[in-house]
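Intended use. Records like the one below are meant for learning the mapping from a protein sequence to its folded structure. Do not use them to infer anything beyond what is encoded.
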Amino acid sequence: MNKTILIIITLLYNCNTIFSQQEAEVLIPIGIGALSFVAANAENKELAKEISQFRSKEFIVNYIIGPAESKEIKFEIESLASDNSAGLISLAFNCLEVNKKGLLLAFFGDNRNEYGVMSRAYAFRYIPLQEARELLNRIDEVKEKNKEYLTSNWDVNNVYIEYEDIKFVIYNGVGGLIIRTLWNGFEVEWEKVAFDRTKRRLNKWFQ
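Structure written out for the chain above:
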């Protein structure tokens, strides 16, 4: 009996090991808000370029626009701000033919699942234009409203807000106020320069 249990455990372990190796070596697109895994040694700069230039278009046609069938669908996408070290890319998207436009956030880097297991991955979160503008404005308003509180105690005082399934923790850190962004197992810093550029360029893009 004990020998049988040991054999089953060994088989399960080997299957998990094989799956983990495959997971680390290939891209696995598995849907909206889900994760695509990348090699553990993927270099951030090259990964960010791949995501902003190619994987974002793949996500848009598969999950925002949908099947083209016999139609020829035109759409535009442009990177607004990218922070290779922080793990967050913002892109503007517009498709008149399906009446969809807005902000696409690409999260990449370390990801922790519900069991605490870490892996390297990326995923996209689409926010319609009006909601994106309201969110960016709200974050700025919260920072301004709580500026005295946040700056009175470095890296101690925090303000927490959320938009649907995205959580934001704002605090005073190196270089000023930092927006810690948590979503779908990612935890990244939306730094001031990248955030300000995203807001400014998004508004300009859709003038």
